[in-house]
Structures are given as C-alpha cells and as structure tokens.
Amino acid sequence: MSGDERYTIGELARRTGLSVKTIRYYADSGIVPPTDRSPAGYRLFDAEAVARLELVRTLRDLGVDLAAIRRVVDREVPLHEVAATHAEALAAQIRALRLRQAVLTVAAKRGAGPSEVADLRRLAQLTARERAHLVDDFLASVFTGDPPTYPGVLVSMTPELPDDPSAEQVQAWVELAELCRDPTFRASMRRLARQHATDNDVPGLPRPDAVALVRDGAAGALAAGIDPAGPEAEPVVAAVIGRYARRHGLSDDADLRQRLLDRLLLANDPRRDRYLDLLSVINGWPGGGAVTPAVDWFIRALRARMSVAAGSQPNQVIA
C-alpha cells in the first residue's frame, strides 16, 4: 500500500470487510476523517486513515466504546491505558456472568421457583465479609459448648472463595451456604462435634474418632466388595472394634458395640460428606474423602453380628 494512494469509502469497504454505512459513520463522527476529496467531491482516505480504521475495528471487536476509541486515535490517552481499563471492566463482567451462570445452573437442577432463585442469587452475591460472618456463625453453632476445639479443625472446615472464582466454585459456595443455614444440619454437626469431643476426652493430641476408625478400617473391605454380613467381614469388624475398645480402655462386649453403633448412626449424615466435597471445590483441595459409604458398610456389618449375638442368647426362664 503506497503512502500516496487514496481510497474511496467503497474501496475501503471491500478491503476491510466493513460496511459502507459503518465507514461513513466513522468518517462523519470524526473518528476516521477523510484525508482528501476527489474532484467529484467523494471522500478519500490515505494509508494512515486505513490503519486508523483497522485500529477502530479491532477495538470495537474487543468491546471498547466509541468515546474511548476517539481518545485513543486522537492520541489523548495511550492505548495501553484504555486496554487496561477495559480489561478490568471485562473481568468484572465475567465474574458477574459466572455468578449468574452458577445461580441459574443450581436453579435449573432443582427446578427452583422464583423465591428460591432470589435466595440463591442473594447467597451468590454476598460480600467476603458477609460470607465469613455466615460461616463463622455456623461453626460457632456447631462447636459452642464443647471442650476447646483444635484450631486445625476450624480451619479445615472454613471455605475461602477466591476473588475470581470459577462458576463451579460459585455453585459450590451457594450450596454450602444453604447447608450452613440449615438448622437440621447445624444440629447434626453439633451432635457429631460433641461425639468427637467425647471420644477425645483425654489430654494430648486428637485421636481418630469412631468415624475415622471405621473409615480407615472398612474402606478396603468396601472397595473389595466384601459382603458386610458375610464371614469375610468378620476380621474387619473385629479389628475396628478392637481398636475402638483399646482407645477407651474398654472390653469388646455388647455394650461397647451398641455404643459404637450409636455413634456411627449419629455420624452417618450424607450432608457431612457433601459439605466436605463442596469445601474442597471452593478451596481447590483434592476431594474423595467421603466417609458415608464406609460407615454404611460397617453399620450393616455390625448390626448383622449384633443380631446373631442377640439370637444366640438362651431364652430367659419365667418364674
């Protein structure tokens, strides 16, 4: 392209792919003014005007408004400053779109009505301070009244939504926030916390509670597909109960087995696993720590043996 060449609006349209109407608008508004006019009065544009038009088209494709473009092409502000400003604005729009996507995705999965959608939107739009207050209130309700809680437990249960979360993280936060507000879940977690405290009622570092013992002891049997009521489950049950009995200085008897069963039934709330799964998504932690399947398996195994033991007792003689 020679620096002396001149192009009509029609020629520019063919070169750039822009419409004649668009180029005429840019020329009329002074954003890409003509360089000259032909003897017949047609507007003509030189190579610099063509380059200016290409810049205008690029910035428009990137969503930059015409007022900002005019300031750039008139050299009132550097291009990099306008780019930075609009990049920040786009980042904010993307965050807003992720939020909307998360709310609509959760609402669609649930078949939510208008009031529930509005509530989901409010939870998604909470500020960092409001989110922290909600979580702190939940954790305080769970652990209040118990022996001192190890700081690591609270940290491990605290979600930290990033400043620029993904749509998946926003979805996870909305669901986790609902769990935090659920009074039945709070009560369940409070009972579980008290049970954990009771199982660690000795000085020193915390030790595995009943759920942790079952998770560690029964996971292999569950993965292997062992029938919880079958004979192959017997050594697994005996090993877990033996560890639990030794931890508390008790004998393996009917009372101990009933105590362990009561604790497992109390802890066997799938919402606990769901909370931890959501927490992993929000915090970017590895997941896969579900305990409910192992606890379910062990409850069936323990009940099967307690039922057999109860049936094998001699009938009482009524005087």
Describe the structure.
The chain is mainly alpha-helical and 319 residues long. Among the domains are: 9-77, Multidrug-efflux Transporter Regulator, Chain: A, Domain 2, CATH 1.10.1660; 184-311, no CATH class. It contains 15 helices and two strands. The chain has helices spanning 9-16, 20-28, 47-61, 66-73, 79-110, 114-124, 128-143, 151-156, 167-181, 183-198, 210-223, 234-248, 254-267, 270-283, 292-311; strands spanning 36-37, 43-44. Strands 1-2 form a two-stranded antiparallel ribbon. Strand 1 (36-37) and strand 2 form a beta hairpin. The radius of gyration is 34 Å and the shape is rod-shaped. The model is unreliable at 315-319 (pLDDT under 50).
Order of helices and strands: HHEEHHHHHHHHHHHHH
End-to-end separation in angstroms reads 118 Å
> Strand pairing plus helix content: what structural class?
mainly alpha
Low-pLDDT parts are: 315-319
Main beta-sheet strand count, sense and barrel state: 2 strands, antiparallel
Q: Fraction of residues in helices?
A: 55-70%
Tally of helical runs = 15
Outline: rod-shaped
How do the strands line up in the largest sheet? 1-2
Radius of gyration: 34 Å
Mean pLDDT: 87
Q: β content, as a range?
A: under 5%
